[in-house]
């Protein structure tokens, strides 16, 4: 199966809207999310934990609407202040701006909004997930909780992505990606695209990707001590971190042919 001929234009048009939306999501990350959504299996919903003002929501929902991939479930309390959220510059909530982003793109019917904490949204959750995007609380406790609560609902072949796995400010995304994804054989192809760590849930044949994931895990694990809470990233420490990060294989986006769509 090949990517549809209009894929680049669909994503490009979505980015034209998203580029002006506040948030820490680069264009390459935006395109990575779009590809991961398209490669997700046919059954289940798309879950976004952490929406802020809707930048990543545009990527997920635009592709989902165009290719009829089902709803995007947006989970975010939109409260402020939050230790790991972008600054709101005096606003008390990001919710109105989030709604404005979705409405201006005509995506109201594509996005199912849950204005709540992920732990509360998870209560009684019984829906299969075709793609899980974790971009909420970046502390280890918060990221681990999001993974533990929602990953048991992944559909076979589902894609999963964590933001800021290669960010220097928080240890949650990199630890969870290394310890709970790269080092478990229920996951298959995996990689880094910009700061996104991504993989595919492959419980039946994930073991055949073990060696590749372990090589990636060994390199990525070297970053964990540098981002532990309380450690200052400056001087020689910062240079060491940058060197180790540069040795981790990156791709502009996941290889479409690595991800088998089920």
Question: Secondary-structure map with pairings?
Answer:
Blueprint: H1 7-18, H2 27-38, E1 45-49, H3 55-66, E2 72-75, H4 95-104, E3 111-114, H5 118-121, E4 129-134, H6 140-150, E5 154-162, H7 172-182, E6 187-193, E7 196-201, H8 210-221, H9 235-246
Parallel strand pairs: 1-2, 1-4, 2-3, 4-5
Antiparallel strand pairs: 5-7, 6-7
Helix pairs in contact: 1-3, 2-3, 6-7, 7-8
Short description:
The chain is an alpha/beta fold. Helices cover 37% and strands 16% of the residues.
What does this structure look like?
This protein is of the alpha/beta class and 262 residues long. The protein has one domain (7-258): Vaccinia Virus protein VP39 (Rossmann fold, 3-Layer(aba) Sandwich), CATH 3.40.50. It contains nine helices and seven strands, in the order ααβαβαβαβαβαββαα. It has helices at 7-18, 27-38, 55-66, 95-104, 118-121, 140-150, 172-182, 210-221, 235-246; strands at 45-49, 72-75, 111-114, 129-134, 154-162, 187-193, 196-201. A seven-stranded mixed β-sheet has the order 3-2-1-4-5-7-6, with helices on both faces. Helix 4 links the parallel strand 2 and strand 3 (111-114). Helix 1 runs antiparallel to helix 3 (55-66), helix 6 runs parallel beside helix 7 (172-182) and helix 7 runs antiparallel to helix 8. The longest helix is centred in the N-terminal third of the chain and has 12 residues, at 7-18. The protein is globular and about 45 Å long. The chain starts with 6 loop residues before the first helix and ends in a 16-residue tail after the last helix. The mean pLDDT is 90.
């Amino acid at each position: 199966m090949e990517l549809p001929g209009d894929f680049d234009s669909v994503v490009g048009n979505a980015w034209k809207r998203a580029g002006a939306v506040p948030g820490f999501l680069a264009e390459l990350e935006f395109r990575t999310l779009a590809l991961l959504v398209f490669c997700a299996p046919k059954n289940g919903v798309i879950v976004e934990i952490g929406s802020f003002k809707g930048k990543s929501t545009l990527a997920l929902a635009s592709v989902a609407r165009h290719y009829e991939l089902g709803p995007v479930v947006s989970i975010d309390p939109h409260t402020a202040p939050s230790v790991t959220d972008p600054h709101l510059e005096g606003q008390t909530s990001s919710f109105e701006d989030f709604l404005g982003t979705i409405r201006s793109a005509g995506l109201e019917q594509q996005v199912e909004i849950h204005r709540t904490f992920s732990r509360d949204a998870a209560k009684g959750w019984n829906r299969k997930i075709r793609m899980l995007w974790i971009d909420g609380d970046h502390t280890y406790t918060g990221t681990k909780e999001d993974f533990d609560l929602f990953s048991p609902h992944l559909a076979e072949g589902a894609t999963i992505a964590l933001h800021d796995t290669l960010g220097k400010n928080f240890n949650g995304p990199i630890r969870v990606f290394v310890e709970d994804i790269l080092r478990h054989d229920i996951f298959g192809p995996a990689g880094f695209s910009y700061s996104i760590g991504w993989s595919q849930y492959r419980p039946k044949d994930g073991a055949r990707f073990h060696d590749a994931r372990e090589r990636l895990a060994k390199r990525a694990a070297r970053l964990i001590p540098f981002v532990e809470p309380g450690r200052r990233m400056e001087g020689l420490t910062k240079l060491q971190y940058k060197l180790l990060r540069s040795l981790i294989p990156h791709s502009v986006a996941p290889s479409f042919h690595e991800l088998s769509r089920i």
